[in-house]
Amino acid sequence: MKKLSWLTGCLLLGCACFASPVHAVCSDQGILRIGGQIPDVVFTSGVPSKVRIVPWWASFDGAGWSCGVMARSTTLGVSVQDTYGCPGAPPVCPIHPPGEWAAVKSSYPTDPKQVTRSGGGIPLIFDGETARGTHGTVEIGIVDNDVGILDGNHVGIIATVNVYIEAVKPPATWFTATSTAANIAGDYLSLNHPYLNERPDALLFVSHVRNPVSLAVAQEWNHPIGVQYDTARAKWTIRNRDGAAMRPGLGFNVRIDPTATRACAPIHSPLHEFAVVDDPVSNGNVWATLIVIPIGHAPPHPLAVRYVSPHWPPTEH
Question: What pTM was computed for the model?
Answer without folding.
Answer: 0.80
